[in-house]
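User: Please fill in residues for this 350-position structure.
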């Protein structure tokens, strides 16, 4: 047996040690870059939250708990030279900052939109995935993605100029006739600019988000599980009910939360449709406002407040909307974990 010269062996060992050193150095660089990248999103979230808290603190001190229960939001007399002081914080005379109608409008529009969008999105995704041939479903799914790219101001103009007047003339009268059963439906339907129209437009806006995500999840369901169910004699409906939907139910919840987050923070479309009237609507067709829409419509007036309390009050509204978004996402994660903890027919699901 012929052995390699000692010089060549030493050179090979040196190259091996050098490559190992370079590899470990690359690992350290990759670990450091990954750690920095992983810390950026939570760092930005904490930074934004801290900035909002600092900006909203004078309003928090001034309002106290009345901010959540008050039904009046008024910047006060901005032309007066005197100020009022409450809890050690100055504000213009007659100033009052309450958020109850805005909280109601935000939750009402987003929840109605979510209740309408989820079944439509899941049903449409099931149709594209399970019923329509793939050569037809793929072009249709492209149109679904294009719908998600339409600017919100276009949705708002469409809702005000076309969709709202049409359903106010042809659909709302029939709904209003059910007012003796559901009191919130009783009353004048208006011209299509109100709470229900805003909710319907929001539903159209979040359907692409929920449907496209659900469609991707449906195509990840194991084909053998579905074929096994069909081989056992199940219909397509039974297969979807027993196998497909349970397999992706956690993903549907997550997709719904993405849509709800979009609905909670939508501004321009809602502002154009529901208006900026500070009140709780008397019926589902009435005008009102949401937190995001109110901030957008009143920011110019708040900047004219010589005490700065107007901007602080809007910052408190923004902080409230941020807290609502974070809490809903946290609650959704808890729900997803609990749902995923059960036994699914074909596995733990996605």
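Assistant: Residues filled in for all 350 positions:
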């Amino acid at each position: 047996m012929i052995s390699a010269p000692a010089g060549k062996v030493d050179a090979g060992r040196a190259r091996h040690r050098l490559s190992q050193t370079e590899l470990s150095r690359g690992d350290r660089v990759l670990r450091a870059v990954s750690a920095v990248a992983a810390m950026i999103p939570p760092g930005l979230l904490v930074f934004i939250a801290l900035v909002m808290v600092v900006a909203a603190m004078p309003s928090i001190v001034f309002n106290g708990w009345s901010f959540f229960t008050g039904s009046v939001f008024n910047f006060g007399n901005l032309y007066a030279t005197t100020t009022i002081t409450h809890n050690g914080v100055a504000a213009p005379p007659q100033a009052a900052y309450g958020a109850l109608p805005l909280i109601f409008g935000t939750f009402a529009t987003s929840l109605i939109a979510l209740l309408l969008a989820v079944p439509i999105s899941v049903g449409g995704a099931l149709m594209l995935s399970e019923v329509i041939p793939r050569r037809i479903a793929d072009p249709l799914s492209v149109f679904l993605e294009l719908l998600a790219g339409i600017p919100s101001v276009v949705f708002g103009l469409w809702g005000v100029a076309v969709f709202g007047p049409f359903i106010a003339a042809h659909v709302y009268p029939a709904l209003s006739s059910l007012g003796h059963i559901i009191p919130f439906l009783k009353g004048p339907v208006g011209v299509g600019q109100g709470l229900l129209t805003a909710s319907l437009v929001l539903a159209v806006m979040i359907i692409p988000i929920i449907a496209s995500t659900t469609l991707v999840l449906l195509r990840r369901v194991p084909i053998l599980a579905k074929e096994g169910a069909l081989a056992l004699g199940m219909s397509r409906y039974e297969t979807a009910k027993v196998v497909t939907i349970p397999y992706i139910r956690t993903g549907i919840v997550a997709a719904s939360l993405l849509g709800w987050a979009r609905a909670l923070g939508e501004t321009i479309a809602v502002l154009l449709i529901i208006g900026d009237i500070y009140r709780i609507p008397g019926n589902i067709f009435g005008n009102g406002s949401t937190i995001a829409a109110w901030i957008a419509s009143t920011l110019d007036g708040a900047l004219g407040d010589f005490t700065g309390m107007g901007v602080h009050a809007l910052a408190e509204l923004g902080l409230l909307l941020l807290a609502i978004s974070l809490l809903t996402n946290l609650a959704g994660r808890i729900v997803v974990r609990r749902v995923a903890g059960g036994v699914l027919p074909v596995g733990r699901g996605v």
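For context: Residues 342-350 have pLDDT under 50 and may be disordered.
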